[in-house]
Design a protein that fits this description.
Elements (H helix, E strand, L loop, with lengths): L1 H19 L7 H11 L3 H16 L4 H7 L9 H8 L7 H8 L2 H13 L1 H11 L3 H12 L8 E2 H11 L4 H17 L8 E2 L12 H7 L14 H14 L14 H9 L3 H18 L1
Antiparallel strand pairs: 1-2
Helix pairs in contact: 2-3, 3-11, 7-9, 7-15, 8-13, 9-15, 10-11, 13-14
């Protein structure tokens, strides 16, 4: 009886050890197998090879990608290419502003501020960023959280890797940052939704920006892309780290505050509409 007991213990120990042992390492053979599963053209193979190098350098185990690469829903999305080919920021300002400067969005901003005033004012005071600028950014980026999930983040970036060669360097970095983020937070890469450009959360941060600027403002141990305390603090932190003059409400073109909004999305139309919506919400909330 004792011998059987010892054999059972030994078997369980060996089984546990096998489960903990890595199934693969970042060998040329592993990389070749991954590229065969996940990359459908030469461009994608070149970019993913660089992405895998970044993952290896960040300490992401090969097993993470080996298991994910078997997912049957990995695919490109034609709508991503179509959206990149006609960005709204390229419209004339009159057409662009009609998307955002509407009675509904202004009223939504007033309500958002009223419903979250204590939080918004706390974040504003902590970072020295104008509260109505934070409200306006939330309105433009995700319509106060109502419009933040149209594509899987992985699917959007995966499509760019395959079909938009002009974005090769950008997407190499963003895909690597995204996969590291997923590994660090135990997230399946296809579980997170965002925009056609791979931005996610109510603040619509691309992966590299999220990892660099996101804040855990409610101190729950996680930087949450879909929780307003973390989102508003992350937006404020991004602005400050990109030149916002704390306590200033100078938004004239070329000012530090104007430039910090431009860094959020480098398009004159974007900055103009964010600042115009800010003024409209502030006036309506008075």
């Amino acid at each position: 009886m004792k011998r059987k007991f010892y054999i059972s213990i030994l078997y369980l120990a060996v089984l546990a050890s096998a489960q903990e042992a890595p199934l693969a390492d970042w060998s040329p053979e592993t990389e070749a197998a991954l590229l065969g599963r996940i990359a459908a053209n030469d461009r994608a193979r070149q970019i993913y090879s660089k992405v895998f190098g970044r993952l290896r350098d960040e300490g992401v185990p090969a097993d993470f990608m080996v298991e994910f690469s078997k997912h049957p829903e990995i695919a490109t999305d034609k709508s991503v290419v179509e959206r990149f080919s006609r960005p709204a920021e390229k419209l004339s300002y009159e057409r662009y502003r009609k998307i955002f400067i509407t009675d509904k969005r202004i009223e939504g901003g007033v309500k958002f501020y009223a419903d979250n005033r204590a939080l918004i004012d706390t974040v504003s005071h902590r970072f020295g960023v104008d509260p109505f600028l934070l409200v306006s950014l939330a309105g433009v980026e995700s319509r106060y959280g109502r419009n933040a999930k149209t594509h899987t983040v992985f699917g959007a970036l995966h499509t760019v890797i395959h079909d938009l060669p002009r974005k090769a360097k950008w997407v190499e970095r963003e895909m690597a940052e995204y996969l590291v983020y997923c590994w660090e937070n135990d997230l399946p890469p296809l579980s997170l939704y965002g925009s056609y450009a791979g931005a996610f959360g109510y603040g619509q941060f691309i992966p590299s920006s999220f990892r660099a600027y996101a804040m855990d403002f409610d101190n729950d141990g996680v930087r949450q892309p879909f929780e307003w305390p973390d989102v508003l603090a992350s937006m404020a932190n991004y602005l400050v780290k990109n030149g916002y003059a704390k306590g200033s409400v100078d938004f004239s073109k070329g000012s530090r505050n104007w430039k910090s909004v431009f860094r959020y999305n480098p398009a004159d139309n974007y900055v103009k509409v964010v600042l115009e919506l800010r003024e409209a919400i502030k006036e309506a909330a008075a």
